Amino acid sequence: xxxxxxxxQKLSTQRALxxxxxxxxxxxxxxxxxxxxxxxxxxxxxxxxxxxLMISGDLDSSIxxxxxxxxxxVIIFPGGVSQISPLADAILFLxxxxxxNAEHLIGKHVIAAPIIKKHGLEAISTGYILVESGRVxxxxxxxxxxxxxxxxxxxAVATALAAEYLGMKFIYLEAGSGADQxxxxxxxxxxxxxxxxxxxxxxxxxxxxxxxxMVDAGAKIIVTGNHxxxxxxxxxxxxxxDAVKGRI
Length: 248
Ligand code: 1GP
Description:
single chain; alpha/beta; TIM Barrel; 8 strands; binds SN-glycerol-1-phosphate
């Protein structure tokens, strides 16, 4: 069974899944092991690994460290074609469908595809929609794209539908890591009500209540990263998991 099918199966029995994004630039060694164990015991459903930039981190060693502490899915969330590792379970094959830069719609994919094939990695085609979130985020800057205006849910809806019709298996509404403002709930609601593939939502989710409201609005996979890079926030993890699973 593919990982994608396994995730769909899990989603048929749970209201939503919770993925923790680990940026190898921010987590390594003992801290990565400790936090992985905490995520597993709190009930996180999987890990995304990657970053818009990777300066000091190492993708292979981060994934192998992670794998020592969990059997949960480890999925690459690539910031670029250099972020492909045979050690992961799958890779989000991202197309920046909110942008009009051909490199992020097909160019990088052509470079990455043979490497993914060689590694035998499962590629999960994902329509990545950047949403305006206050200040310019790293993802917007690096992709050189204009995000969907936050007060225009209809643009996000049309974009998500187009991505689904192109065959993409996840739609990812992204405010950008560390965003000032998360994706508006109304946009999540509007998009989730028209698509039939799972909706991932991330960027700027900084409290459990917001995570729960995203699921109420129709998100099927919640992603957080930045908030838990700060050690002092890690005590909130269980509340996030419970909110996503509808236990609070
Ligand atoms: C970023 O959506 C992810 O690509 C997670 O965002 O780091 O703001 O939680 P945060």
